[in-house]
Amino acid sequence: MSEHVPVTSVTLERFRNHQHLEIGSLDQTTVLVGPNGSGKTNVLEAIDLVISGRSFRQARIEDVVQWGSDDAVVRLALARQDAAFVVEERLSAEGGRRLYVNGVEKRRRSDVVGKEHTVVFRPDDLELVKGPSDVRRDALDALGARLSEAYGHTRREYTRVVRHRNALLREWRATQADLEVWTEQAIALGARLLVHRRRLLARLAAHAAREHDSLSDGARLSMEYHDRCGLGATDPAVEVSGDDAKAALRAAFAARRDEERQRATTVVGPHRDDVVLLLDGREARRFASQGQRRSIALAWRIAEMRTIEDVSGSSPILLLDDVMSELDERRRAALQDCIASASQAVLTTTDEGHVPGAGRRALVIALGGPRE
Q: How many other C-beta atoms lie within 10 A of the C-beta of residue 171?
């Protein structure tokens, strides 16, 4: 096994359908083969949950604990060039979670996994193109939070403020003075989040455009950031200052004060913004074919990988959930190039024939049939 393989083994206890599963040796490319219902995706989810801190299924912590159990355990053996250690995450049926390294509890995930990151490829990545705006916002913010603690903290605090503000708006007895305190916080945090997002999107969009060139028949992919506060700068490469963002948000809050009262919700801020994907200047959500959507979604995920490499200086772990069977020869070849250059890749499939050579030897592990 290469010394550069980040995750060398995986153990699951009472995690979803796995009462106990131990995969004692992962390679640079590992293929999990098994029928639907055998829990292949659950293995990818467990790895992602420990490395990134969140489930790519958007699941609550209590949802991953096996029915009738008090807790679940995910144990990863991680290897770096200078050290090897075991990371264990204990997940409670009440939603709590605790993280340990070699048996010692840790509070900060970044202190545990360091520069390790994951990028997940799934068939439902098509939602990045055809889905509502929150799918693209969440994908962008998830990437930002993985790369920057400041980004993640800003987004969490902004979400908390908007939630509190909405609660006040639903209570018609709340005065404007009561609301103003939270409005100022929404402006400050919202401006910071908007600037973070635009900078990250500029980097992601540049990579996605280049990757898409190799996947398409000449159509040009571009991305725009459409805010709801009247900044008017849709090109994410155009630098927007925090002061400009604050001024635009403050003016928008003032202009839409009555609308907010009427709708009893916060109608201004980055939680309403959208990333618009364009093919040759036309909105992909409306005009792209199914094949074009696959190319765009694949370009987005590969661009995430390239962005992580830019910012962190290391290649992420790729988690591919039964995506090869959905791709044609050109897109499959592009994905194989990524697999070959990644620090590690773990793939799932129902048919080993769907995963041809990925530029290096692959370890194939068979999982059993469906289990209750």
A: 10
Tell me what pLDDT residue 1 has.
36
Query: 105 pairs with which residues across the strands?
Result: 100
User: What torsion, rounded to 10 degrees, do the Cα atoms 45, 48, 53, 54 define?
Assistant: -40
* β-bridge partners, 364: 31
Of 14, 1, 34, 90, give the one whose Cα is nearest residue 364: 34
**Do residues 18 and 25 lie in contact, with contact meaning Cβ atoms separated by under 8 Å?**
no
**Terminal C-alpha separation, the chain:** 34
Distance between CA atoms of 187 and 268, rounded to whole angstroms?
9
Q: What domains does the chain contain, in order, with CATH numbers?
A: 7-117+314-366 (3.40.50.300), 128-287 (1.20.1050.90)
Phi, psi of 208 (to 5 degrees): -60, -40
Name the nearest CA neighbour of 212 among 292, 111, 138: 292
Residue 296 and residue 213 in contact, taking contact as beta carbons nearer than 8 Å = no
Among left, alpha and beta (phi > 0; psi -120 to 50; other), residue 318 is beta
Q: Which residue has the higher pLDDT, 44 or 178?
A: 44
Segment 266-277 shows an average pLDDT of: 97
3-state SS class at 339 = helix
Cα–Cα distance for residue pair 335/344, rounded to 1 Å: 13
State pLDDT tens for residues 3-49.
468 999 999 999 999 999 999 989 999 999 999 999 999 999 999 99
The tokens describing 114, both together, are 């360091």
Can you tell me the distance from the alpha carbon of 111 to that of 10, in angstroms, rounded to the nearest whole number?
A: 20
Mean pLDDT, residues 46-54 taken together: 95
Q: How many residues does the chain have?
A: 372
Alpha-carbon dihedral angle through residues 126, 156, 343, 357, given to the nearest 10 degrees: -10
Could you give the count of Cα atoms lying within 13 Å of 367 in the half-sphere of its Cβ? 27
> pLDDT tier at 293 (50, 70, 90 boundaries)?
very high
- Assess contact for 37 and 370: CB atoms under 8 A: yes
